[in-house]
Design brief:
The chain is mainly alpha-helical. The chain is built from 31 helices and 2 strands. A two-stranded antiparallel ribbon has the order 1-2.
Length: about 550
């Protein structure tokens, strides 16, 4: 079947695009023009059956939230500094095996007046907190040592005490929100920001790590670090001689400053971070590029002005390039960022298309990972919700065939996004574009999905079927398409939906049956099409219309 799709001779790019459109499956007697003054009406008429752009945006945001939750482990909000048993560095165990102290013994040593005893207590605490499994965060917090550890951050005269205290606090801040707030409420944030300018690289790195954990806890903690003045000292850490490990931590901390949406970061913060992110996106280290990419995906997951700020930073060509990098650490966040950008206005979507993004999408839609298929289809669905020339770009990039394949055999979450992509196309495309999709075999998998237990998706599928029937009716070929629906058992499924428990599904199914399958709508026999080699041949009309070799003849 896929081979048959590939060798179809009909190409929508060869057909002149008419200015007339149609409103889902309801015929409009007054065809709208393509004048710019019609744009607002067109958006309301063709983006998913009367939904305006705000409603579409909410729908896209809901999908983004779902996608983000599904990928929550791909970039960790917080990181814990885990110490290995074999670890031997001048600032840790110095190669000597340490006896693990009890928490009461640790507390006693930390509150000692002797510096060496304090160091021993702090090192024992941070070793406990660095355990790979079940570190005793709550026990350490309840012991009351956190304020003392914060106090030790000021001991620049005793580097090892300062470093180990920073490490211990970093790991406490890597815990849940309550544990993180314990560190914040003890006054650690201003001190950690001061340590970003420490002459000791390991202390600076630990401070970055701690602040990244705090900023990643949520909007409140993120904004608090910004108010405390984190941005410029953090950006100042990026020097020509910075180590790769330190740069990775700085980039990750920057990404957490871009993260979370309720509320999102202030635009002033974003404006300060975007120039460095555009540079980090071109770094040669995989982790640096990945975290920079994730940061951009967080910024673009917002309003049109935030999307425009990212576009103005000139990162879109690089994001497009990363789609074909092969490494999922790059592909996933770049796909997310570009997917967010095309949820913006038509001009922002067009910029992504002008950078050649669609040429990368066929392998993504056929990717072995269902999440990649899903996000790719989601991205295409927002492009097909745009202008007709943007829909044509999707067709010219040969992306309808992989969308049909997802409808036939993809995982359900990917199928839902493919359904939206096809429905948006049928809602806003020209007659030629809609019939091209029909010729690519979309009707049967759409009808097959009518039996799923997902009311919203069933409604979207019914919209698509109604739009296709309306397109056929526009050119007098309704009967042929009705026969196709019957042959793929679609009519039986639509009739069954008249018994659906959801009123909207029932009414939409009933409307399709009454409008297109009742005896009152029998066509004149002279208008019935014949087929030649599996393709439609239409009876001549009184008006001259362009024709192409193969496929539909208008």
């Amino acid at each position: 079947r896929r081979a048959a799709y590939t060798h179809l001779s009909f190409s929508c790019s060869q057909v002149k695009t008419y200015s007339f459109l149609f409103y889902n499956y309801h015929i409009s007697e007054n065809m709208p023009t393509t004048d710019s003054k019609e744009n607002l009406g067109r958006l309301k008429s063709f983006k998913n059956k009367g939904k305006d752009t705000d409603e579409m945006r909410r729908r896209r945001t809901d999908v983004t939230v779902e996608l983000r939750k599904a990928r929550k482990d791909e970039q960790m909000l917080k990181r814990r500094n885990i110490s290995l048993e074999s670890e031997t560095t001048p600032l840790t165990d110095c190669g000597n095996k340490q006896v693990e102290l009890t928490i009461p013994a640790i507390v006693e040593k930390i509150f000692s007046s002797d510096v060496e005893t304090q160091i021993l207590g702090v090192q024992s605490a941070r070793r406990l907190l660095s355990k790979a499994r079940n570190p005793p965060l709550d026990e350490i917090i309840k012991s009351g040592v956190v304020p003392k550890l914060v106090e030790f951050l000021q001991r620049s005269d005793i580097q090892q005490l300062q470093f180990d205290a920073a490490w211990a606090l970093t790991n406490i801040a890597s815990g849940n929100s309550e544990q993180t707030r314990t560190v914040v409420q003890s006054g650690a944030v201003p001190m950690f920001i001061t340590l970003l300018m420490s002459p000791h690289s390991n202390v600076r790195d630990q401070a970055v790590w701690a602040l990244g954990n705090i900023a990643g806890d949520g909007s409140e903690c993120r904004d608090y670090t910004v108010r405390c003045g984190i941005i410029q000292p953090l950006l100042s850490c990026i020097q020509p001689d910075i180590s790769v490990d330190h740069l990775r931590n700085v980039t990750w901390a920057i990404s957490n400053l871009c993260r979370n949406k309720n509320p999102p970061p202030a635009m002033e913060t974003i404006d300060q971070l975007l120039p460095i992110l555009s540079q980090l996106l071109c770094h040669n280290d995989k982790e640096v590029v990945s975290d920079a990419c994730w940061a951009l995906s967080y910024v673009t997951d917002g309003s049109v002005d935030r999307i425009q700020a990212v576009i103005n930073s000139s990162v879109v060509p690089r994001l497009v390039q990363l789609l074909s990098a092969g490494d999922m650490n790059w592909v996933s966040p770049s796909l997310r960022a570009l997917g967010n950008i095309v949820t913006g206005n038509d001009e922002q979507t067009q910029l992504v298309l002008d950078c050649g993004a669609l040429q990368h999408f066929e392998p993504l839609l056929r990717h072995v990972r269902a999440n990649i298929q899903k996000e790719s289809a989601w991205t295409i669905s927002n492009i097909t919700a745009g202008q007709q020339n943007q829909i044509q770009c999707v067709i010219d990039a040969n992306l309808v065939s992989p969308l049909v394949d997802i409808l036939m055999k993809g995982e359900f979450k990917a199928q839902k996004e493919a359904v939206w992509a096809i429905t948006n196309l049928t809602a806003g495309g020209t007659v030629q574009q809609i019939l091209y999709v029909l010729e690519m075999g979309v009707l049967k998998p759409l009808c097959d999905l009518l039996v799923i237990n997902d009311t919203k998706t069933v409604l979207v599928i019914l919209d698509a079927i109604g739009n296709i029937l309306n397109a056929a009716n526009q050119i007098g070929q309704l009967e042929q398409v009705c026969v196709m629906i019957e042959e793929c058992e679609g009519l039986d499924k639509i009739e069954a939906l008249q018994q659906h428990r959801n009123t909207d599904v029932y009414q939409l199914a009933l409307g399709i049956i009454d409008k297109y399958f009742s005896d009152e709508n029998d066509e004149d026999v002279s208008l019935a099409p014949t087929t030649t080699s599996g393709q439609f041949q239409f009876a001549p009309s009184s008006q001259s219309t362009p024709q192409v070799s193969g496929g539909f003849n208008f």
